[in-house]
Design a protein that fits this description.
The chain is mainly α. It has 3 helices and no strands.
Amino acid sequence: MGKQLLRSATSVTANYRAACRARSKAEFIAKLSIVVEEADETLLWLEMINESAIAKVDDSLMKEAKELLFIMSASRKSAKGRENQ
């Protein structure tokens, strides 16, 4: 689980950086969609680690992971809305 958490968390960072360097709105939205998927997977692994009692995940870390997922989801939604205009 730890390795999966590491992979998904680092993927969030790498794909967010790629989104910031996107060459088009469509590419930005596509990369941001990957960020949302990976952020959600990261949250899943944190929850599983916590619930399985492998380790205690700090509540502030869980809160921040949820907030980042919400922010990225909202950003993607805004970008899609602007693309359709």
